[in-house]
Amino acid sequence: MAPVPDDDAARREPSTGQGSDRDTGGAVLDGQGSLAPAAQPGSLSPTAADGIGWVTLVTTVAAAGALLVAMSSGYAAALGVTLVLALALAAGWPLLTGSRTPAATSAVLAVSAVAIVLSAVRRDLQWVPAAVAFGIVLSFLTQLGRRAGREGLVLTLLSSFGGLVVMASGATAVVAVDDAHGRAVAVVAMAAVAAGVAGDLFAGARALARWLGVIALGAGMLVAVLAASRTGQVGTLQALGIGAAAGAGSWAFRRIFSLEPAMLTARGQVAAATGSVLAVGAVVCLFSLLT
C-alpha cells in the first residue's frame, strides 16, 4: 500500500500577523513565533506630546473652577460636582491607561464613583475605604467573564485600581468644606490647579522645556497666595504650601500621560484633566486638617 501523503493544510501554522483578538488577545506572532503585542495606532512621539492639548487645558480650568465655586458654596454642591467629575473620569480613564476591556472597566469605575463619592456623606470618611474595596472586588469579578484570555489582565486591573485611587482622593476633599477654614483651603487649592496650567501653555517652547515644572510651581504658588489673601482664612506660608502641592502636582499628573496614544482623543484628554483635578483632593484634606 502506498504511503498516505501528509496533509499540509492541517499542519499549516498561522503566519506572522495572523493573530486575532480572540486567540491571542490582540497580539500577533513575531519572527521567532512568540507573541508580541499589537501595535497601537496613533502613538505620540515626544515632539508631538509637546503640543498643547486644548481639550485638556480647557477641561482642567473648567473643572477646577467648577469645584472652586461648589466648594465655596457648601457641602452639597461640592458633593455633586465631585460626582460629575468622577463619572467623567470613569468614561475616559480606561482608554487613557490602556485597559484591555475599556467598556467593562468604565462600567466598574462608574458604579464605584457613585459609591466612593457618596461615601463622603459620612464626615469621618470611614466609608471611603469600604467603597474603594467594593470597587476592587467588582474589578476582579468583571475579569472572570473575559473571553479573550488573560492577555493584559494585570494592566487592566491596574487601570481600575488607579481610577479608584483618584476618585477616593477627590472624595476626601468634600469633607473639608464642612467649615470656613476647609472651604478656604479648597478654594486656594483649586485656584492653584487652574494656575498650574501655565506649565502646559509653554510646553511647545523648547527653550523652556526644562522649566515647565518650575513654571507650574511658581504660578500655583503665586495664585494661591492671591486667593488666600481674598479668603482671609489661610496664611501666606500655608498658601505657598498648598499652591506648590496643588499647582505642580496637577501639572505633573497631566504630564505623566502626555505620551499616551489616548491623548490624541477627546476622551483621553478629558480623563487626564479631570484626574489631575480630583487627585488634588488629598492635598485639600491634608492641609485642612494640619493648618
From TrEMBL:
Keywords: Membrane, Transmembrane, Transmembrane helix. The keyword Transmembrane applies. Residues 1-32 are annotated as: Disordered. The keyword Transmembrane applies. Signal peptide: none annotated. The chain crosses the membrane at residues 51-69, 75-96, 103-121, 127-145, 152-177, 183-204, 211-229, 235-257, 269-290. Residues 8-24 have a biased composition (Basic and acidic residues). This is Uncharacterized protein. It comes from Terrabacter lapilli. The lineage of its organism: Bacteria, Bacillati, Actinomycetota, Actinomycetes, Micrococcales.
